[in-house]
Amino acid sequence: MINFKEEIAKQISKATNISKQELETYVEIPKDKNNGDYAFPCFRLAKELKKAPPVIANEIREKLILDENIIDKVEVVGGYLNFYINKKLLAKEVIKAVNEEFGKSDIGKGKNIVIDYSAPNIAKPFHIGHLRSTVIGAALYNIYKMLGYNVIGINHLGDYGTQFGKLIEGYKLWGNEYDIDKDPIGELAKIYIRINELCKQDESVLEQCRYNFKLLEEKDEYCTKIWEKFKDLSLQECKKVYDLLGSKFDSWNGEAFYSDKMPEVIEMLQKTGELKESQGAEVINLEDSGIDTPCIIKKSNGSTTYATRDLAAILYRARTYDFDKALYVVSYEQTLHFKQVFEVAKLLGIDKKYTDGLEHVAFGMVLLPSGRMSTRAGNMIKLEDLLNEAIQRAKEIIEQKNPELEDKDDVAKKVGIGAVIFNDLANSRIKDEIFDWDTALNFQGETGPYIQYTYVRTKSVLQKAGYLPKVEDINVDYLVDEYSQNILKLIYNFEETLVQVTNKEEPSILSRYLIDLSKAFSAFYNENKIILEDKEIQDARVYLCSAVGQVLKTGAELLGMEMPNKM
Predict the structure, then answer these.
(1) Which stretches within 120-220 are classed as H helix?
(2) 3-class state of residue 496 by DSSP
(3) Fewer CB near the terminus (10 Å): N or C of the chain?
(4) Are the C-beta atoms of 362 and 330 separated by less than 8 Å?
(5) Residue 378: pLDDT above 80?
(6) Largest alpha-carbon pair distance within the chain?
(7) Which residue segments constitute the domains of the chain, with CATH numbers given?
(8) How far is Cα 450 from Cα 487, in angstroms, rounded to an integer?
(9) pLDDT by residue (tens digit) across 53-99?
């Protein structure tokens, strides 16, 4: 498609002698469509040209030589130049471009992106708090891949640490009281809650738990055997959830994978002279970097920390994947941890491109109306229960509204899971989310089911028409009305929307886009009769419906949602 921003920048460049590349970055899409299709804010040039923005705008306007086949008109409003694109050209460009590959690009060709996401803790319930990391990470994975990047999705399992020392101790004390093979996560969670209570009451038990983890690090046969049993049973349970969500990973290397790689990290840090003894522990002081809390590399009992393992992972991923960017999709509670780790990583002697590419993609917590969830307190909503409940509720709605629908179970699964995923991705990731069943499973308003219903409507139009016109037969004269143009502008901006997601690591930008496209289609559907006697008009409108359906399907699938053909 014609790059309209580039065309505008080219014209302004001729009038100002400022580089087209610089000017193109200033061109924006106005929030108010009454201000044109594109706007150029002249205040960006005020300092360079030493003139007031309205003066600059008028001077540029006088010098512009417009190609009316591309730009219909330009208006000066205050310090802005507002550009209106030729409606027929826009329609022609979009109609010609939309196909099953639409939105794909090669802008990421040759670049490697590592995304660390989901990362549930082994032997703990896979609860709704893990949903955010899983769906945000999966959406980013899909969108980067769509833009041509080589993406490596890593499930950095929480399969190491003091909590396993606690579970081992609890299992030693009470293992015969629990049927772990029958309900692995549920029974291990009970043991974990119980051993935590005992640790609070008896410091010596807590010390024994810490010692158990040290034995695990030293490959003690008994501790390793129990740990492996916990891990295998837990992964079987986790994969049930991943199957429901359609989640896939390229690597399942968790914390334990780096146990034999940490000595090299510690040795590297020792050679820098920055690793210091503090109260029996070994730490890196980061005050010079503006971080008051030192990064603990080894605890006083000699065991390692999350930080040590994350540093070993950075070193391994740099060597193995040669990444341009390494994203960590982890809650904002870990902000200090990643600040420390990313700063210490600079001491590992790896290329600056790797340390520059480290990024914490923080997100808000999932809270219950009653407050925070805690495995220790036992007030979790299991993610598998949530997803199955969503499917069941979706099925009940289908039974009420369309009892004759074929493949009800399949549709209910797509609608229920889609509702949960979209609910999580609909708002800025950094906001805390209070999880409420009624909100998450509301099938009205700006929700996943609304997008799915809009898609089904486009399929219904095609079914009624009984054919899809050939693109060369479309007369774009019938796509210049306000409602058609609103759709065409949104479709034109689909790829740019995906780029914006990766610029900000923010999937909600795509969620918002899909809602806007669905609303634009609803207005078009209500205002324009589609199936009619005039075949030329029908062909144009049917083809536009098909284009909307294609973009909705592609966009929803990038978020991790499946589209039903009927609802």
Answers:
(1) 129-146, 162-174, 184-201, 203-217
(2) helix
(3) N
(4) yes
(5) no
(6) 87
(7) 4-85 (3.30.1360.70), 112-367 (3.40.50.620), 383-559 (1.10.730.10)
(8) 17
(9) 999 999 999 999 888 899 999 999 999 999 999 999 999 999 999 99
